[in-house]
Amino acid sequence: MILVIEHTVGYMLKVIKSGIKISAYKDEFNAIHHGDYKSFLQEMKEPIPFMIKYQNGVITNEEGNPNYDCDFEGLSKAGSSLRKFYKDCLKAYGMIIDKDVDDLIYYKLVTFEIAIRMHANNENLLSKTHRTDLEKVIDILCDSKNITDLDKDKIHQARRFLNMVKHFKNQFPSWAEGEKHFLEGYEVLKRHNMLIV
User: Fold this and answer.
1) How far is CA 37 from CA 12, 83, 169, in A?
2) Is residue 1 scored above 60 in pLDDT?
3) 169 near 197, Cβ under 8 Å?
4) Cβ neighbours, 10 Å, residue 127
5) What is the model's pLDDT at position 97?
6) 109 and 16 in contact (C-beta within 8 Å)?
7) Average pLDDT for residues 172-197, to the nearest whole number?
8) What CA–CA distance (Å, rounded) separates 71 from 135?
9) Are 5 and 114 within 8 A, CB to CB?
10) How many CB atoms lie within 10 A of CB 172?
11) pTM
12) Looking at residues 103-122, what average pLDDT do you find?
C-alpha cells in the first residue's frame, strides 16, 4: 500500500533531485517533510476532516482543528491537503522521470524520514518550538531505544542517501551503492518497528 504522503513527498524529492529550483510551494514542502502538519494544514487551507478521538477513556469529536496529539493524527488530518498539494505541484513542475532512482525508493525515502520524526515526536524527544535536523533526531531516537552503534550507523548511511537525493555531493560513488546502503538502514527501522504502519 502506497500512502498519500509517500506519493506526494516522493514526487517533490524527485523534483529536487532533477535540479528544478523549488520556488512554488516551498513552505508547504518544508512543513510536510519535517512532520509539521499544523503548519502544512494552515498553508494549504483545505478542509480538515471530521475525526472521533479516544484518549484516557474520553471520546471526543472535532472538525476543522489543525492541532493534533500525535503525529499519526496530524498525518491523517493532512490527507486531503496532501492530495491537493500533489496536484498543485504536478501542475507547477510537470511529470519527471528519474533513471537513477525508482519511484518505490522515493516512497521509502519519505517513510524513512517521516517515521523517524514521528517516533521521536511521539516519545516527546524533540523540541516543540523548532525543527531538529534529521541527523540529530536519529541520534536522539537511537539512544532512547538503545539501538546498537552498528544499527545507528546503518540508519545514518540511509540518511546520507536521502541527502544525496536532496543535495547531490557525491555522498556515495554511485546511485546503486547509495540505494544499497539506504535499504540496509530502512531494514533497521523495520526490524525495530519504527515505520509508520
Assistant:
1) 16, 14, 29
2) no
3) no
4) 7
5) 92
6) no
7) 94
8) 19
9) yes
10) 16
11) 0.86
12) 92
> What pLDDT is attached to residue 160?
97
d(CA 75, CA 84): 14
Share of the chain above pLDDT 70, in %: 97
User: HSE-up of 73 (CA within 13 Å, CB side)?
Assistant: 19
Tell me the C-alpha distance between 186 and 112, whole Å. 7
CA distance 107 to 119: 18
Tell me which amino acid residue 116 is: I
Cell of 171: 555522498
Q: Which three cell numbers stand for residue 8?
A: 506526494
Q: What is the 3-state secondary structure (H, E, C) of the chain?
A: CCCHHHHHHHHHHHHHHHCCCCCCCHHHHHHHHCCCHHHHHHHHCCCCCCEEEEECCEEEEECCCCCCCCHHHHHHHCHHHHHHHHHHHHHHHCCCCCCCCCHHHHHHHHHHHHHHHHHHHHCCCCCCCCCCCHHHHHHHHHHHCCCCHHHHHHHHHHHHHHHHHHCCCCCCCCHHHHHHHHHHHHHHHHHCCCCCC
